[in-house]
Amino acid sequence: MSERKPAILRPSALPAHERGGGARTIPLVTRKTGATSFINGLTMFEPNAAIPLHSHNCDESVMLLEGHAIAEIDGVQHEVEPGDTTFIPANIPHRFINRSDTQGMKILWTYASVDATRTLIATGDTRPIDAEHKG
After folding, report:
1. What does the pLDDT read at residue 132?
2. Is 4 within a domain?
3. Is residue 116 part of a domain?
4. What's this model's pTM, rounded to 2 decimal places?
5. Beta 117-120 vs 126-128: how paired, if at all?
6. Among 102, 90, 99, which Cα is nearest to 126's?
7. pLDDT in tens, the chain (135 residues)
8. Residue 82 in contact with residue 97, Cβ under 8 Å?
9. Contact at 8 Å (CB) between 23 and 46?
10. 72 domain-assigned
11. How many domains does the chain have?
């Protein structure tokens, strides 16, 4: 068993992974970092970008850091401003939409499990979150 050590993570020094549709993600605290109970990261959205409707096998919290968003949660759209934070229980369909035509948007997401998965509502396709972050 490896010893877990504290870490300072600088997003500017970490690789970003394209999510498609104008969104890219930077994983921060992950199993690779030593996390055993949660993972988190950043997702940046270009103007008007959105991610597909999806759900997870664990609770999720998302904080809007920059921009103006629509958080669609369980069929209801909510306007979200910087600092607003969501709590989304497992298996609830949701997505985030950048509602600006000109400015980017950034969220900080946290999953309550290192084994978090994403299931796309449109296709039913499920994959581990960490599989999305492989180069």
Report:
1. 80
2. no
3. yes
4. 0.94
5. antiparallel
6. 90
7. 468 899 999 999 999 999 889 999 999 999 999 999 999 999 999 999 999 999 999 999 999 999 999 999 999 999 999 999 999 999 999 999 999 999 999 999 999 999 999 999 999 999 999 888 765
8. no
9. yes
10. yes
11. 1
Spatial CA neighbour of 28 closest among 121, 122, 119, 108? 108
Q: Residue 82 is part of a domain; what is its CATH number?
A: 2.60.120.10
Rounded Cα–Cα distance for residues 5 and 46 (Å): 34
pLDDT at position 131 is 84
Kindly list the distances between the CA atom of residue 20 and the CA atoms of 17, 43, 45, 46, 52, in Å, as whole numbers in the listed order. Answer: 9, 11, 10, 11, 10
Is residue 32 included in any domain, yes or no?
yes
Q: What phi-psi label fits residue 12: left (phi over 0), alpha (psi between -120 and 50 degrees) or beta?
A: alpha
What pLDDT score does 135 carry? 52
- Give me 13's structure tokens: 């020094």
The H-or-E segment that residue 25 falls in is strand 23-27
Residue 108 · residue 97 · CB < 8 Å: no
